[in-house]
Design goal:
There is one protein chain. The chain is α/β, with parallel strands linked by helices. It has two domains: 220 residues, Glycogen Phosphorylase B (Rossmann fold), CATH 3.40.50.2000; 181 residues, 3-Layer(aba) Sandwich (Rossmann fold). 47% of the residues lie in helices and 17% in strands. It has 15 helices and 14 strands. The strands form two sheets. Strands 3-2-1-4-5-6-7 form a seven-stranded parallel sheet, with helices on both faces. Strands 8, 9, 10, 11, 12, 13 and 14 form a seven-stranded mixed sheet that branches.
Amino acid sequence: MNYLLFSFLPPTQKVSSGIMLDQLCRMVPREDISCFVAKDPLFKVGISPDLSWIPHRIINEPRGYSSAIGKLLPGTPGQCAGFIAELARNFFIDKTVIDQAVRFGKNYRVDCVWAVLQGKTTIISARKIAMKLGVPLIVMVLDDPSWVLDAVGLDKYSKKKVLAEFDKAIKHSIACGTASRAMADDYSKRYGVKTIVFWGSLDKKMAREPALSPNGNSQLSIGLAGQLYATDEWNAFLAALSSANWRISGRDVKVYLIGDLDYVDVPCGARIEKLGRMSLDETIKTLSGMDIVYCPYFFGENREVVAKTSFPSKLTAYFAAGRPVLFHGPKYASPAKFIEENNAGICCYSLESGQILEKLALLADDNELYAKLTKNGTKAFLKYLTLDNLKSALTSFLGAPFTHESN
């Protein structure tokens, strides 16, 4: 069977959202995959060079102007104007993205559309592409669609229409790959679709020996890798450290940031060092030298759905690094439940400085707890978050059309 991967990004190791696609494409036989990408024009990224054998086409999706219009015309006038602009954008999506994807699919005689529903263009196009090609549809959802649409400033009227199309795409699909168990359970109940969880995964050989205690020197090092979306939580974390004069259990605290985090402001007096972008190997090696790894997540009610359904890829690297995780977010969040179920870290469910400092001190002082958490983190990584598990999920996902047709 020849699958047409229809996505918002090509498989690539240069952007976090493209890493899993890069991993998955390497697991598909060469003769079974082609790729059509409708990406944001601001993304200057191509397919991984050693995956260039995949028949592929990358185009820029039509730009959206809802956000810009909303800033120029606040309130209802801006919402209405944004909606009109999005109607025009729909026309260009239909005449460029959908028509070109269908021609591409016919040219390579695809038997199934494998769509990644991330953003307006892919959401409103996937079902139509599959229907015009006359082939089954299987979909993947990496993030809550409502959150993604809000992030690009889509007006509320257009958002409602896109979310309605999202519902149609899921209901039309034979299988849906999800970012977490909570998302899988929700979509299975809501849409009656077969769901398969795609955890962020790494090669099991990348796992480091779990540390039995902090490093034992005069500094308590804390690492954060990847993107930093939860800014309120991060600021509360920094406020807590500042209130303690950046000392925990008699040790000076220093925070290290790994990734493209130049946009993160460093408050005066904060002991923070930006290490910049690293390869996965370098990231895990660096994290394995930290005392604690830190994962902030959204507390706000407006982010409740994304907190419940998403699973940050940084956690996979954290568990592979063999150091204890401090999760800082709401109790209902998907990462919190994963950590609690596997006893693989400490969770702080508060923005209050006292609670944050208490959790940090616990990790700094209790070596028995420290060792238990790191060992359990490694076990959780090997059980759920390796490429072997990812390949098993992909096999079930890609095989769904065959199972469906035979029933």
